[in-house]
From TrEMBL:
<dbReference type="Pfam" id="PF00708">
    <property type="entry name" value="Acylphosphatase"/>
</dbReference>
<dbReference type="InterPro" id="IPR017968">
    <property type="entry name" value="Acylphosphatase_CS"/>
</dbReference>
<comment type="similarity">
    <text>Belongs to the acylphosphatase family.</text>
</comment>
<feature type="active site">
    <location>
        <position position="33"/>
    </location>
</feature>
<dbReference type="InterPro" id="IPR036046">
    <property type="entry name" value="Acylphosphatase-like_dom_sf"/>
</dbReference>
<protein>
    <recommendedName>
        <fullName>acylphosphatase</fullName>
        <ecNumber>3.6.1.7</ecNumber>
    </recommendedName>
</protein>
<dbReference type="InterPro" id="IPR020456">
    <property type="entry name" value="Acylphosphatase"/>
</dbReference>
<feature type="domain" description="Acylphosphatase-like">
    <location>
        <begin position="1"/>
        <end position="86"/>
    </location>
</feature>
<feature type="region of interest" description="Disordered">
    <location>
        <begin position="61"/>
        <end position="88"/>
    </location>
</feature>
<dbReference type="InterPro" id="IPR001792">
    <property type="entry name" value="Acylphosphatase-like_dom"/>
</dbReference>
<feature type="active site">
    <location>
        <position position="15"/>
    </location>
</feature>
<keyword id="KW-0378">Hydrolase</keyword>
Amino acid sequence: MHVIVGGSVQGVGYRYTARMIAREIGVAGWVRNRRDGTVEAEFEGTEDQVDEMLAWMAEGPPGSRVESAKVTDAAPTGGRGFEVLNTA
């Protein structure tokens, strides 16, 4: 899945909490801030894992305020682990 989350999602620990949650759930992928103030992520896993990650991303960590989430399918890469990338 490819997700772009908007709202108050930068400067609130969103990316690092997303990495922690993703690793707990077992999805692989990445998350990063974008210059327009949104957070972008791409991840893969089982259907249940992906659903759980999407549900978390719609809420975010305490202190965040998710106002929008654009979700699109992305081709699986077979990646391992989940990382925080540099700003795009």
